[in-house]
Amino acid sequence: MPSLAESISLISGDRPDHLTLQEQVYQRIRLDIMTGKFIPGKSVTIRGLAETLGTSPMPVREALRRLVAERALQLLPNRRVSVPAMTIEKYSELTAARVALEPLAAERALPHMDDAMVAKLTRLDAEVDEGIRLGDVELYLSKNLEFHFTMYRCGESQVIMPMIESLWLQMVPFLYLAMKRKGLGAIVDQHQEALSAIRNRDAAALAQSIRLDILDGVNRMPESEFVEES
Amino acid sequence: MPSLAESISLISGDRPDHLTLQEQVYQRIRLDIMTGKFIPGKSVTIRGLAETLGTSPMPVREALRRLVAERALQLLPNRRVSVPAMTIEKYSELTAARVALEPLAAERALPHMDDAMVAKLTRLDAEVDEGIRLGDVELYLSKNLEFHFTMYRCGESQVIMPMIESLWLQMVPFLYLAMKRKGLGAIVDQHQEALSAIRNRDAAALAQSIRLDILDGVNRMPESEFVEES
DNA sequence: CGCACCCCTTTGTGATCACATAATATAAAG
DNA sequence: CTTTATATTATGTGATCACAAAGGGGTGCG
After folding, report:
1. Quick one: DSSP state of residue B43?
2. Where, if anywhere, are coiled coils annotated (chains A, B) (predicted)?
3. What is the ipTM metric for this complex?
């Protein structure tokens, strides 16, 4: 199991006891989506996936429907599903929504973060840097995801977290493919600033560092990566 | 078909051509949820709903799963689904998320609103006031929903709108029951302020009026309406 | 009177089948 | 060779069945 799979499993309810088949299928398909295994626009079929995964069409059906509801997949007018293509408009919307919600999640998490959590986040940030240094897209994306979600989860937000998860579910597949094609480049983040804001118990500074972290990473996306229309 | 039904159908894709059975079942169950037809915490069964709606369990199954993904229903550890009870923490989170997203949606919609839209919103606001004056919960909730969603939809936001829809889906059932029990009272809103901000093309003023509109309505909720824990 | 055990029912999950529709390949006509 | 018409296949949707697990109820024992 690749490293990205473990990190992605941080998203949304990982209840090991609750291992219904459709849940496993859901996790697997979601991982495949986030690591660019499906070509955007090309429709995925229930029976095809069922045969690949060695199950009946039933669990696949429910997993696909759930992923459509979470906006990781789109329902075409033909009733078929596919990975949606990324447009500039959608990307800017995703960014705007992230800027609106993630600083909020970080602020709500701050009171619940102790020294051990700061240490854990510091370690994760080091691994993010390692990924950047090596140009390892999987490592970078997985550890960056872990950094953000580990932080936000401290807030125990039952409403805001699922929304952030949905946003990443829509954003990551595109980032994965774009970075795989263009390389990581000289990515900068605001993790250090966020960490020192946490240590100082400075909610405003933390929120601001998260805002900048999102916008920093985003503005480096060349236009050539997007498709034309919705 | 009651008035609330038509307004609620403003939420999420209403494609009349696309009338698969599970879609109709979904719309119907969603309406029942928002009008308090299910007791929070009491589990709803697939077969029970199927019998009530006169279909096989299949479409109900998919509709329920979709509503769970949209957070209108919750999945209990027993694999059963129920309308989640409202807690103070959840309500404050819903409010925070609304304050974060809805002003954003309004700002994005502003450039696309013409005089006809202002006239339509003015008419809807009058109907909202009528609902308040009559103490008609259904009328108030449906027209208030229409007012907000008609405005936000002008922005053609494909990412932010579904998130706002999910928030209302979680909020409205609770409001419905609380207002039915306690009455509308002297509800105040910021619709007039929003309308004049639109006429002046003042994005900041519009965003602020939406913020206040959300917080105004929210702070009037007595604590006695909530349940104890999550 | 309270509590544990057992039986019957209900329920969610997964598999299989049937059908209508959309997609694709094939063939015929220009 | 292109294009249109046709036939064949593939696909989503809905229904039904099988099964294991959870719920509920009643009885017997402590």
Report:
1. E
2. none
3. 0.91
- Alpha-carbon gap, residue B163 to B98, rounded angstroms: 9
* Cβ <8 Å between B89 and A166: no
B74 touching chain A per CB within 8 A: no
**Structure letter (DSSP) for residue B20:** -
Residue owning tokens 């999550």: B230
According to the 3-state scheme, what is the secondary structure of A151-206?
HHHCCCCCCHHHHHHHHHHHHHHHHHHHHHHHCCCCCCCCHHHHHHHHHCCCHHHH
Domains of chain B, residue spans: 3-82, 88-225
Q: Which residues of A touch B159 (CB under 8 A)?
A: 71, 90, 93-94, 97, 167, 170
pLDDT in tens, B97-116: 999 999 999 999 999 999 99
pLDDT of residue B131: 95
Alpha helix segments (H runs only) across chain B: 3-8, 21-34, 46-53, 57-69, 88-109, 115-134, 137-153, 160-182, 191-199, 203-218
pLDDT digits (tens), chain B, 230 positions: 456 776 766 666 555 456 899 999 999 999 999 989 999 999 999 999 999 999 999 999 999 999 999 999 999 999 999 999 999 999 999 999 999 999 999 999 999 999 999 999 999 999 999 999 999 999 999 999 999 999 999 999 999 999 999 999 999 999 999 999 988 888 899 999 999 999 999 999 999 999 999 998 777 777 777 886 64
At B74 the three-state DSSP class reads strand
- Domain B3-82, what fold? Arc Repressor Mutant, subunit A (1.10.10)
